[in-house]
Amino acid sequence: MDETVAEFIKRTTLKIPMNELTTILKAWDFLSENQLKESVVQHLVQLCEEKRAGLNDATLTSWYCRCTPFSTAHLHTQKENELF
Predict the structure, then answer these.
(1) How far is CA 22 from the centre of its chain?
(2) Is residue 33 within 8 Å of 26, Cβ to Cβ?
(3) Lower Cβ count inside 10 Å, N or C end of the chain?
(4) DSSP per-residue codes, 29-46
(5) Entry's InterPro entries (predicted)?
């Protein structure tokens, strides 16, 4: 891929709010959902290795994954309330 195209994709993607990123990338339909997920997972593991994530960090991720949609929404609301 041309370096200019890569930079354009990077800059455009960074402008997308995180909560809309998945929706937009799925609508783009250039990469399959599996390709997107695998790429994110590989990059996430690399970042966690750099930050020396431990078992406690991994356990928290597992706990969040088990939350129901209601619980997840509640957690976001609670975090937002803590900011103010």
Answers:
(1) 8
(2) yes
(3) C
(4) -SS-HHHHHHHHHHHHHH
(5) CENP-NAC/CAD_complex
> Which DSSP helix (H) or strand (E) runs through 68?
none
- Residue 33 CA to residue 36 CA, distance in Å, equals 5
How far is residue 6's CA from residue 51's CA, in Å, rounded to a whole number?
Answer: 26
CB 12 within 8 A of CB 20: no
- Give the residue extent of every domain in the chain: 1-53, 54-84
Residue-wise pLDDT tens digits, 20-70: 988 898 899 999 989 998 998 999 999 999 999 998 888 887 777 777 555
* Rounded CA separation 14/6 (Å): 12
Query: Which H or E run contains 54?
Result: none
Alpha helices (H) along the chain: 3-15, 18-28, 33-50, 55-65, 69-83
